[in-house]
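input
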Amino acid sequence: MSEWKQLWVKPRPIDDPEGNYNGFNPSVTALKAGYRHPKGDVALTCDVVWERDTAVQLRDGTTIYTDIYRPATKEPVPVVISWSPYGKSNIDLPWVYNEGDLSHLQKEEGVDPALWCAKGYAVAHPDARGFYMSEGNIYHWGTNEGKDIYDYVEWLAQQSWCSGRIGMAGNSYLTIAQWFAADQQPPHLTAIAPWEGQTDAYREVILQGGIIDNAFPRQAISVMHSNNFVDDMATMAEEYPVMNSYWENKRAVLRHVTIPAYIVASYTNPIHTPGTFRAYRELGSSEKWLRIHNSTEWVDFYRPENQADLLKFFDHYLKGEDNGWEKTPAVRYSVLDPGGKDETGIEDTVFPPTGTEYRALFADAADMTLKTDAADNAVVSWDGKDPEGCLLFRYTFTEDLDVIGYSSLRLFLEGKDCEDMDLFAEIGKEAPGGGFLDWECTPPNRYMGPFPAYECRLRLSMRALDPGKSVENIPVQSFAKPEPVRAGEIAEADLAIRPMGVRFHAGETLLLRIGNEFASFLKQGRQIGKANTGGTHILHTGEGHPSCLVLPVRRVG
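output
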């Protein structure tokens, strides 16, 4: 008998105005060079064949429908897939794009057929299972969707116009789909270009630290359109808050990804950043490249210079061109400098960069500072019920250092008159007037807004680690079952802080905030720390209980 029961919810109908659905019309249309979509900014520079609503049958008999844009040539061409739930055409989300760059033939977050067909590629726009007219119920990420993409890839490979070399590209959902597709190893999937996206729905999205936060999954479902039903992941989190096979199905097995991968990451997306860096670490491929930018993924993806870089990658692997791609630095990273000037395009062979070392800063409850040596034993407490209850620790740098890579936090905690606690910790530069110094995305982006700190969260009863998934300075919880803290017990908790790359100059102060809620959530009027019901939360510091922040640091210059 299954340990869980699948729950479904009805998404919006396909004729909902926000779905931008332009009807079901199986057909083939010739789009001539010079054609411009009424909402597009650029015209086609070559003749394009538009195959619309072509049926594809999956292994279980389900039929999905796809659009194909391909250059009007008799020569077989490689294909780039944009797999997502966002419709095959008529996307109208201007905040995603750079003005003047795109044709409006692209899927949201996917490559633009106007550019890619002119460069000798077909662009595939499927409606995944359950979306719009595609049959079946919607799989919300996971292995099941990976199997569907396997079938779709192999169908594409059999088409007369296809060269048999197939890639995937795009960001967010389009990246998530790539992890699970490549995990399944379809024979004709030749290379992928994941541009930021999570790899583990439980740990990176909906139950980070074992604390339910289903706002994003509910928002994701709210923009889906179907005749059928969608996997109700938000309610599944409420019904099944500990790890089970349902959640394991939504964690990509990245060691199975053995094809070339061009991975793009940032430090600033609270959902996508941890999984993208996890993918880089765990990917089974020996041919992988990592680029870390200092913008937001949507803006970064569509910048012409980055599309040119992506074309070079696919030209090498999908067309077999000897264009020098293999000489591209294995890692190109950025360092953010709130209050200063970011540094971008720094080349290395590994991440964290060469020369990075781990430095422990020990919390001292006696004077609320962080120190390089553990102090005498001391305790400090905060109200277990007050949403604004928190502790603030500070460390002032005496030299210029980049904090870059994987930071972690080890805390020794005791609860008095409380059964559990939800912990929210953040680190960042302290602003001159107190609080965290905001870093504004470059260029400014209406969607993400200012970014102040790097965070982690944990329900204390879910602190048990998974030794098979944890690596140096990256603790990973198992979430197999709650382990309540007994009265008088001092519990050790390890938290992985989101990957970061921040430059601290001599005289600047790092602020560590530990509390009952993120400061940014409080500003938004949000509160997800449901285990903070009362009593007193106590932090122990000193040699006997060395609560500490471990930072990956690298000297500047």
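quick obs: The radius of gyration is 24 Å.
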